[in-house]
Amino acid sequence: MQWEEFAWRWEIAKTERPVLFELDRDRPVDRDAIASAEARLGVTLPAEYVRVLEVLGGGYIGFVVVYSLDPASQANLVHLNQRDDVPGRRFLAFSDNGCGDLYAFEVVNGRCAPEVMFLDHESGTAAATSHATILDYIVDAGLKS
To answer: pLDDT (tens digit, 9 = 90+) per residue, 26-82?
Structure first.
């Protein structure tokens, strides 16, 4: 999904389900904050995720929580990816399902692939999802009832 389609779906969801947009979101960030986070994490974030961080911030986005770069947030990308339950340098978690499982990008040669992976905490396995990018994930999991 491209940003234009995402923005269109976002506006429709705001009209049809305004309650989804009343939850707390973290502040959007600038390129300097993104560059700092990438340096601390040792990865390059996908372009779609960078755009989400710059325009929407993070935190509650509809029914999902998207990790942000807000240092005061409980959903801070850098802090949460330094936990022991995130599988090393192979994945970068950007969301969770509230039950211990993570949604993540696979890291290949220091770059996050845009496709969304599902990391099952019980089996320790990673599986591809139908979400080609974080934008698809937000629309499918966050904006649909």
So the answer is: 999 999 999 999 999 999 999 999 999 999 999 999 999 999 999 989 999 999 998
Angle formed by the axes of helices 31-41 and 47-55, to 10°?
130
Q: What is the CA radius of gyration of the chain?
A: 14
| Rounded alpha-carbon distances, angstroms, from residue 76 to 8, 79, 82, 120, 140 | 27, 5, 10, 20, 22
pTM: 0.93
Task: Map out the domains of the chain with their CATH numbers.
Answer: 3-142 (3.40.1580.10)
57 CB contacts (<8 Å, ≥6 apart)? Answer: 25, 26, 27, 28, 29, 68, 70
